[in-house]
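Here is an idea for our session: we take a single protein and study its fold together. Once you have written the record down, we can walk along the chain together.
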Amino acid sequence: MAFIFALQSTISISGYILGRVKINILNQINSLTRAIEKANGVVAVLDGVDVDSGTASEIGCACARGKPILGFRSDFRLTGDNESCTVNVQVEYFIEKSGGKVVTNLSELKAELKRMFR
């Protein structure tokens, strides 16, 4: 979804371009939703000062469909609403509700992937 932000300046030039881009974005969102529905689970990269809003919505979508979610955060900066949380409390809640967890290093990620997706 990162390309959406790169197109932001182009989008505002004309309604025609806006309409075409909006349809492409909606098609991409539908494709992502179908991919989540078909997947055995989701691995979400949670790096950044705050979790990307697209990633957060995909976590919610996966949780609502009963898919296990594994969050990976290698970023050392504090984030979220509460210092006791690794990420935004709602994001962490949906990951844990799905049966997953947030991990912070590659060896932990590998071990959890084996555990969750045997």
Summary: Residues 15-38 form the longest helix (24 residues). Strands lie at 42-45, 69-72, 102-103.
